[in-house]
Amino acid sequence: MVADWSFGIQDDNLQKMVDEARAKGAQVVALLSHNGMDVDLKLASRVSWHRCHLRRPHARRRAGGGAGGQPGGTTLVTNAGSNSKFLGLMDFDVKAARSSISATGCCRSSPTSCRPTRRWTRLITKVRAPYEARLAEKLAITDGLLYRRGNFNGSWDQLICDALIEVQGAQIAFSPGFRWGTTLLPGDAITRELMMDQLAITYPYATLNRDETAR
């Protein structure tokens, strides 16, 4: 939906970039991606490199592929999730020789010592003030676990699709599969702010398409 932009895995192009970095002396290549864990694991098996993506408590290892399906070393893949649930850490011990590289990765709970500063607290409070009452409006109480963790769907997505079907009178509904958003436990209130937490995207349009040939 962005003019003159294309999106895709593009592992061939990625391999060229990794090779270029290696040629310039890089002993470790790290990629910060936006793919999600499953796609990252597949990508790691198709590119020859050492990389990490800072959601899992511990990094998963995946053998690299590269051009012609040749072995490409071991890749560490990990993901720290969203909403500051975890702090992603990846430690490298790089020796002089390229063959001597070791790495460990993990996700730790967000440290409680990270406190908001007074300056930012005042700014956020000021910006939120005109909308505070509306954001706090309670829309419903959830009777089940609401989450968004997968690339394809979650219970939040199902709730959104059910609402679209009921309100729009559609037979089927689709929702973009996100991996972020606040998780709610059964019995929690769904406020307008928490709903916007799921819908505040750059393409929030809800459209209804009809098949005129079916008449």
Describe the structure in your own words.
The protein is α+β, with helices and mostly antiparallel strands. The chain has two domains: 11-109, no CATH class; 134-209, no CATH class. Helix content is 28%, strand content 15%. It has six helices and six strands, in the order ααββββααβαβα. It has helices at 11-23, 37-46, 118-128, 132-135, 155-168, 192-199, and strands spanning 60-63, 74-77, 86-94, 101-109, 138-141, 189-191. The strands form three sheets. The protein has a two-stranded antiparallel ribbon with strand order 1-2. A two-stranded antiparallel sheet has the order 3-4. The relative contact order is 0.10.
At a glance:
By secondary structure, the chain is of the alpha+beta class. It has 6 helices and 6 strands. It starts with 10 loop residues before the first helix and ends in a 16-residue tail after the last helix.
